[in-house]
Amino acid sequence: MVPQRSVLIVDSLEETREVLRTALEERGLRIYAASQAEKGLALARKHHPDVIVLDLDFARTSGDDSTGDEISSGFSAESQARATPLVVLGSARRGQSSLPSGEFVSKPYHYAPLIRKIEELLDQARQPARKAS
Amino acid sequence: MPSLFVFRGQDQGVRFELDEDALGLGRDPSNPIQIHDNEVSRRHAEIRRNNSIFTLADLGSSNGTFINGRKLSPRERHTLASGDEVQLGSTLMLFTGSEDEEDLNLSDKINIIHGKDSGDHSRIIRAMKQEEGSQILMGDPGNSASPWLARARSNLQVMYRTALAVSHTLDIDQLLNRIMQLIFEWVEADRGCMMLLNPESGVLEPKVRRTRKGLSEDKISISKTILDYVLEHNEGVLTSDARDDQRWNPAASILQMGICEAICAPMQGRYGVVGVIYIDTSISPQRIVQQGSATKFTEEHLKLMIAIAHQAALAVEDTRYYSAMVQSERLAAMGQTIATLSHHIKNILQGIRGGSFLIKEGLSRHDEGMVGKGWEFVEKNQERISSLVMDMLTFSKEREPELVPADLNSVAADVVELMNVRAVERGVELVLVPEGHLPLLTFDPEAMHRAVLNVVSNAIDACDRETMNREVEPEEEEDDFLDDGNETREIEPAIVQASQTPLEPRVGHVEVRVEYAPAEGMVRVAVHDNGCGIPAGEIDHVFSLFVSHKGGRGTGLGLPVSQKILKEHGGRIVVTSEPGKGSCFTLELPALLPEAAPQHTLSGQKIEG
User: Fold this and answer.
1) CB B306 within 8 A of CB B238
2) Distance, in angstroms, between B358 CA and closest chain A CA?
3) Residues 6+ away with beta carbon under 8 Å from B389
4) B-contacting residues of A 7-66, CB under 8 Å?
5) I need a labelling partner for A21 at 20 to 30 A (CA). Which of B122, B140, B213, B341 fits?
6) By the 8 A CB rule, do B545 and B563 touch?
7) Is residue B313 a contact partner of residue B180, using CB atoms and an 8 Å limit?
């Protein structure tokens, strides 16, 4: 029995959360969403989603600078610990953050390609599991 | 434009243009010339204009009105002359009358001549370096100096202060004009001009010229030799076209023509020479006979001119440096502005794309609900763009409020009605408390609508559902419920309001209250929210451009725009806040009853320095 895969979306923009939820739920995925970065991190730690979509600009400006860094490194740690692909949405330069295993999508982006990218990452993550069994 | 310039006192830097036939001066806000000074009476003095003559009279003030240090007697009307110092309480102002209309192109009025072409036989009588000349400002005011010099010296202090103060508000040409005016008042020159060195070409360019009234406006011819000497040696010179022996013992030959004396001083600033000041005078044959000598300008005149030229140079440097500095600051601010604006516009664009995507998907699956949702997003973002643009426009222009009699209660009511939908969506209670006894007041209703709207919008954001953490998005909670009902509490962030337990939801509440305080002459709109409050250190930054504290939602323009609008009305916004409990933004403005308000008082005349 394949457990339902899930995606976590952390973004302050309601439109992004809504669009991704609509498109991905329709593809049989379970969605966790947070509009605040700290909450997002808590959800990640709790539910271990298969893919995390994170608005980096937002995470960084959520609190003061130190909190911002804590948060992005929190996500980074989470992502590395469980080999969870991280899709980072942002205007910032890629090299700026300490987020390694990441796909970087610069704003403004189109939703269709983003959704495809998320599906791709989910498939890739699934492959090893299949092989094992 | 004749004006009164405040160079000492709380209103320092303010310049009042005198463009009415009658202008009251005093502490009361109804005065066109309102002076913020406790020693000034509410209705202290009055300036009247008759044709181009300005007169000043005291209106029975408690502490009196002083002109050039002398107290005006009760019924006296003093005719104001350029350079007059007017004192009310501890506030000192300088009166300047109409400026002469100066041609911008002075090149055909001032001539630099080479050699002895035009028969100019002037020679240098006395040369002096700047340090020696400037000593004139340092010495003891009282000793050995002639009364003329003592007064000139004290006036020079005034001029210095004025020149430096005004250099922030006027451009170089006006500044130089003013200095020239003052020179003519102290020194009996017939003609004068100021030339500035063009920083790029290194050539002297005439900027200002002046001729004493009644004299012919011939070209001023200045010997290049002398100019070169002045610039090269950095010395002020006194020249005369009489031979040495004849200056003190005039011979018959010169009695026919008279003598021309001149002073040319380098404008030496901190970094170098910025130009020269030149003045000359003719000594008529009659005068020569009367005095028994052919001299007029003395060494004291030379010293004074050198000192003036030095101060003028400093002022010019300040103006240039200041404008260069302002320019570069503006560019930096512009860069920051563009970066921040593009960030906000990107988000709006993202929202529109989101909406469009849902519409497209909805159409292809015949899912009306999805189409509807997508359309909602598109509309919302249209509103956002519109607000952003409106705020940008409001902020960028120098505006005069359009003052009409209006009802502040209805302005507040309109805003509340408009914001109600959004408040409900966000789970915020929005309440209006109008003022019971509120007469029609004079203000710009559209502008005040915008000002109140931005503050109320901010308040709603400060205590909406999400910020208060009462309820995160329903789906989220549902998901967690399915997993493990007990853990709901865990997912709330560590930052919990000090005054509440995690389980107790706080409902966002915004109150808009209109208050009229006729005793203070003020009317207020107080917007109170029970949101998370603003830490003490951040309250000052609340009105900073583009620093948005709403996690990316606000544009950061809203509050600065509101503050600007209140300032245009002669009012302000006061912020008080208690972290964890809430904040209160009070928009305060002078309550002007329609009949009493002069047409242009609020912001028209004052130019803040």
Assistant:
1) no
2) 6
3) none
4) 12-19, 21-23, 30-36, 38-39, 42-43, 46-47, 57-58, 61-62
5) B341
6) no
7) no
Residue ranges of alpha helices (H) inside A36-110 are 37-47, 56-61, 65-81
Percent of chain B with pLDDT over 90: 28
DSSP B537: G
The string of pLDDT tens digits covering residues B13-65 is 788 888 889 999 999 989 999 999 989 999 999 999 988 889 999 999 999 99
Average pLDDT, integer, range A32-49: 88
Q: Does B494 touch chain A (CB under 8 A)?
A: yes
Residue B527: name the closest of B447, B453, B601 by CA: B453
Pairing type for strands B235-240 and B53-58 reads unpaired
Compute φ and ψ for B584, nearest 5 degrees.
-135, 120
- Cβ contacts of A14 on chain B, cutoff 8 Å: 351, 377
Tell if the CB–CB gap between B353 and A110 is shorter than 8 Å. Answer: yes
Phi, psi angles (nearest 5°) of residue B421: -55, -50
Q: Which of A16, A17, A58 sits opposite B551 (nearest CB)?
A: A58
Give the position of tokens 């604006």. Answer: B341
Three-class DSSP category at B550:
coil
The pairing of strands B582-590 and B572-578 is antiparallel
Q: What is the C-alpha separation between B1 and B16, in angstroms, rounded?
A: 10
pLDDT at B433: 94
3-class SS of residue A85: coil
Q: Give the SS3 label for residue B204.
A: strand
Q: Comparing A15 with B156, which gets the higher pLDDT?
A: A15
User: What is the DSSP-derived secondary structure letter of residue B246?
Assistant: H
Tokens coding B78: 């003093």
Q: Global pTM?
A: 0.47
Say how far apart CA B534 and CA B547 lie, in whole Å.
Answer: 13
Q: Does B490 touch chain A (CB under 8 A)?
A: yes
Domains of chain A: 6-124 (3.40.50.2300)
Burial of residue B232, with CB atoms counted within 10 A of its CB: 0-12 exposed, 13-18 middle, 19 or more buried: exposed
- With tokens 């003013």, the residue in question is B178
Q: What is the pLDDT of residues B354-364, one digit of tens each?
A: 999 999 999 99
- Cis (ω within 30 of 0) for the bond into A85? no
Report whether B532 contacts B498 (CB < 8 A). Answer: no
How far apart CA A21 and CA B502 sit, in angstroms, is 28
Report whether A33 contacts A8 (CB < 8 A).
yes
Query: What CA–CA distance (Å, rounded) separates B296 from B258?
Result: 12
Burial of B575 (0-12, 13-18, 19+ CB in 10 A): middle
Please write the tens of the pLDDT for every residue from B209-266: 888 877 777 777 788 888 888 998 889 999 887 666 566 565 555 555 567 888 999 9
